[in-house]
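Help needed: design a sequence for this.
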């Protein structure tokens, strides 16, 4: 009986380790911090983080497949946000809560061509 309990616990440890690995990468952690504040598209993340599109897409794909991000298609753009409540709680513990005044606010960037940046500040 003890072996079965240990096996169940190992499954939990593996799941927790996978979540920690997602957060252990500095750029992914930065991306998660951005996406917990406001849904953003790849081109906006690219401009904000100063990284090339393939790199951003690779990190987004990894987080999306892990069930951390949710996507929403708007016209030609796909916007991503942190949708996993457990990950949101972890991010709040690690990075602190998102200030109320920053929730849902999109900050336009001059180098971004996404529709939200072309319209100016947008409350989401």
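Sure. Designed sequence:
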């Amino acid at each position: 009986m003890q072996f079965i309990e240990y096996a169940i616990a190992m499954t939990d440890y593996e799941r927790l380790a996978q979540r920690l690995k997602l957060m252990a990468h500095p750029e992914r952690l930065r991306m998660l911090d951005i996406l917990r504040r406001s849904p953003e598209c790849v081109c906006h993340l690219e401009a904000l983080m100063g990284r090339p599109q393939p790199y951003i897409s690779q990190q987004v794909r990894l987080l999306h497949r892990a069930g951390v991000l949710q996507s929403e298609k708007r016209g030609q753009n796909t916007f991503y946000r942190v949708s996993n409540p457990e990950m949101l709680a972890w991010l709040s513990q690690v990075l602190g809560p998102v200030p109320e005044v920053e929730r849902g606010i999109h900050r336009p960037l001059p180098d971004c061509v996404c529709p939200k940046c072309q319209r100016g500040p947008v409350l989401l």
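The two ends are 51 Å apart (CA to CA).
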